[in-house]
Amino acid sequence: MRRRNHQSIIPIIMGMRLFHEISQIQNKPVITLSIIGLCCLIHFRHEVSLPFPPVYDVCISPAIFWSHLNLEMMGRVLFSKFYHSDEWHLYYNCASLTWKGMRIEQSVGPEEFLKIFILMLIISESLYMSLSSLMPELELLSTCTIGISGVIFALKVIVNQTIPAQTQFMGFSIDIKYIAWVELLWYYLIDPYSSFYGHLCGIAAGYLYLFLAPKLQQLSSTTTRRSRNWGSGTTGTNSQ
Q: Is pLDDT above 50 for 239?
């Protein structure tokens, strides 16, 4: 069992408070809480004796990904997003996912939210891997990133685009649909080692979803309507 210092105890206490707030929610978001539970189980795998692999067996750099491109590499990249570097990293991501995931899940339902989450995970990571290969000057090929921050930024874009309101950030009034961009820069300023490009790819994934979702829904409804029309046809007979 790992020994934890004073700094790691604080986010754990805050996490317990978050858990208490979640327990007060009447209609609990099942998928959102399941994702949070998975992240917590992976992070505290030593304490609860679960056989999750260590982070260095899961997290891979884009260079290794492209040199061994196969389904196993893709699975490792996606699974590594549920790992977190420390308790603060875990708490912030879980707290942010709780409210954004809950809002979307209660709006579209658990099944649809799960699809959105998986889609945002795949798109954001695909964009990050592509960016690292297309722009090697960014020096991303040798880096390994963990955490679901990219997906959270994508969900933040999706949620905030539908809210015509202002929010306060550092004393300034900002249109809430731009808050993801403000937070992207803010996190980078206070922690230059944070995954700026990972967060940026998450934002791009969110906008891609907002752009494509209406078109896909329209295509789906058109296909369904044509199928129904075809299936409702009648067969006539000739009279003699």
A: no
The β-bridge partners of 169 are 172
- Of residues 110 and 14, more confidence is placed in 110
Taking CA atoms, 63 is separated from 73, 86, 200, in Å, by 11, 25, 20
Burial class (CB in 10 A: 0-12, 13-18, 19+), 198: buried
Residue pointed to by tokens 């934890």: 4
Give, to the nearest 10 degrees, the angle between helix 149-160 and helix 110-134.
120
Query: Cβ distance 135 to 184 under 8 Å?
Result: no
Q: Tokens representing 148?
A: 């679901």
Assign 173 to helix, strand or coil. strand
The amino acid that residue 21 corresponds to is E
**Better-scored residue on pLDDT, 208 or 163:** 208
- DSSP label at residue 70: S
Q: Residue 6 is encoded by which pair of tokens? A: 């004073």
What does DSSP assign to residue 164?
-
Please give the pLDDT value at position 151.
Answer: 96
Q: How many CB atoms lie within 10 A of CB 89?
A: 18
CA distance 16 to 68: 41
Instruction: Return the DSSP state at 66.
Output: H
Tokens 């989450």 correspond to what residue? Answer: 117
Question: On the CB side of 226, how many CA atoms lie within 13 Å of its CA?
Answer: 6
Q: How far apart are CA 18 and CA 13, in angstroms?
A: 9
pLDDT recorded at residue 233: 46
- Give this prediction's pTM: 0.84
Can you give the pLDDT at residue 150? 94
Rounded distance, CA 87 to CA 6, Å?
11
